[in-house]
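Residues pack. Consider this:
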Amino acid sequence: MTVKKGIFMMKVLRKFLVTDVDNT
């Protein structure tokens, strides 16, 4: 579960970063 949660968080963070860069 921890690994799955980590991957999910990493995916969300990456998506957020990509969106932030795209927005900028």
